[in-house]
Design brief:
Layout lengths: L3 H7 L3 E10 L7 E10 L5 H13 L4 E9 L18
Antiparallel strand pairs: 1-2, 1-3
Amino acid sequence: MVSADFRRQLEGYGLTTANILYGMPDHPDILQTFIWQKYDLHPEFPELRKFLDFWVREIEGPLHTIMVAHQGLIRPAEFRAVGMEFYLH
């Protein structure tokens, strides 16, 4: 059985990491960091946008800076089916 993450990679998803700096509600001059990582589509980033919408709606810490890195791990053209498998032992 193929994992859901592998299937998403074949559909064009890549590993997206967002470093989110946000202000603390009780201490607005202090910034905290939060690292978010998930498979997402470049350049629209629907999963990241959904998470940030949730953040703005549900979390009191105001967003300050969001730095995003994205890497496509597998592309459909790189996938090659294997005809046989051999087991030793």
